[in-house]
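Please annotate this fold before class:
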Amino acid sequence: MVSRTTRRKVIAIILTIVIWGVGHAYIGRIKRGICLFFLGLAIMLGVSFIMTFPLPIFVGLAYLGWLIYDVLQIIKLQN
């Protein structure tokens, strides 16, 4: 049987991968989720103007990795 915390982590990670910040909104940090969505959008737009094609993808993946780490840390603190 899967615990409630594990299920919550998996859902938050999936939502974060689909749309930045939605995982944070799912765990109750709505303002933080909205801010992180627009921060990610600004980062990707800024990086795409500065760097050539493949490098913005790595920046986006690094940001996504940080978002996943952050949402997992918040869930850990809530329990």
Summary: The first helix runs from residue 4 to 18. The chain has a mean pLDDT of 92. Helices lie at 4-18, 22-26, 30-50, 54-78. The two ends are 19 Å apart (CA to CA).
